[in-house]
Amino acid sequence: MTVPDVTVITAVYNTMPYLTRCLTSVVEQTIGLDRLEVIAVDDGSTDGSSRELDRFARSYPGTVKVIHQANTGGPANPSNRALEIATGRYVFFIGSDDYLGPEALERLVAAADRYDSDVVLGRMVGVNSRYIHQAIFESTQAEVDLFTSPLPFSLSNTKLFRRDLIERHKLRYPEDMPVGSDQPFTIEACYRARRVSVLADYDYYFAVRRFNAHNITYKSRHLERLHCAESIMDFVGGLIEAGPRRDAVLLRHFAWEVARLLENDFLALDRPTQASVQAGVRSLAERYLTDTIRDQIGIETRVRLALAWHGELDDLLAAIRQDADQGNPPAVVEDDRWYADYPGFRDPRLGIPDQWFEITGSAADWIARLDTVSVAFEGTRALVVTARSPRPDLPHLASALKIVAGDVPAESTELVPDITGTTIRARILLAGLLTDLAPGGKLRLIQARIDALGTTGTAPLRGPRRTVPQRVVVRRGARLHVLTATTNHKGQLIVAVAPVTPRRVMARLRRRLPLGGK
């Protein structure tokens, strides 16, 4: 029997109708059915996914294999079951609501063979405004290092893995993690790999954000996410000895998973949950948060970590409320050193060192921080953003200031100072926002870029304190696109550009109409 080049594994739980596109994109790969094995594990679906899997198994006998089992609460167990019977030289994992570019597997396997790689990443793009960290995909590289590249910020399992690597090191998913179980697997695979390669020459993987947002990651709560962060960071702590290499990996987890536990929505939790989350974050900081990691984390997260570690719950809440309700705190400048005057700064009761609040090396970035006052579409021609800086001297500090949406600069940016600060008004043409779009659309972060203090600073605009998403439908050629000005999970102002598709229209109708469509 011929050994397939690649086994594609997918864990399935209630992902119709996305599952159909996912499986179609796999069986229609240019690599061909004779080089392909597909193993789908149905984890107790109740929405018709089981029947759809069986239909594909009947249509592609010998290629598509289906396992049905009772629900286990996450993708770890289904992924492990599939690994036990996989026979391909390589293994590729795909989310059952995502899909592949037509040549993805052929290109990935060819690159793995050419470079003799154990792990290969192909460029991922987000669909329906799903965020994908792009730094690792800036260029094709035959070899990247886990500790000196952006790889720790791209630790999903949606990669090509040499199956010999998996079996030699007995790599499996931890089944006590309902979310995030792919990260320990991926971290160890990249740590053990002889070579990890990155391909940025093609859109290999399309990661879909469902319209109903029922992906398990989106549903998880703070305490579940805390447990996930604890499990991952303890795994890294046991795998990599203390020092710069461990710090390089754990930086991602403090800057991402832990930081997200302390975002503005922390204020909406009940007090016992807030206390439990703070205790968990404090424990992680005591064990793993080094000065090296601290100095690479943005000021908002850094201050919140400091207060979660060294302060009381009310101290942490005060700092979060500062950002959520009051905007940028003032800066304290002493002997050319800049500090963010957050609650807790030089509080003798807490005794937190000044370094936690220092912004000297990023003072231009600090000056670029603006609060959005309003955002509105000017018909179908432009997006008008009005923002505010607390600095009346902003026009004198800044030799240049520009508002940009992603890489699209505003047509005009006006600064109007007064005794309490400076108002900034920018007009961004929608035609520019409709360029260079991926098939699933694009997210554009609204940022301020400022030349000040001999350097250039950038900072995302904070979204309005009471966010009301603004939408407009714009035609580009024969296609319609929905542009939505809103905020992301960090409270930053973004513009999401998405094509109008029949599936999007039906999803919106299902949300608006009662059962029965009446």
UniProtKB/TrEMBL annotation:
GO terms for molecular function: hexosyltransferase activity. Pfam families: Glycos_transf_2, TarS_linker. Keywords: Transferase. Transmembrane segments: none annotated. Residues 7-130 form the Glycosyltransferase 2-like domain. Residues 230-319 form the TarS/TarP linker domain. The keyword Transferase applies. InterPro entries: Glyco_trans_2-like, Nucleotide-diphossugar_trans, TarS/TarP_linker. CDD domains: Glyco_tranf_GTA_type. This is Glycosyl transferase family 2. It comes from Micromonospora inyonensis.
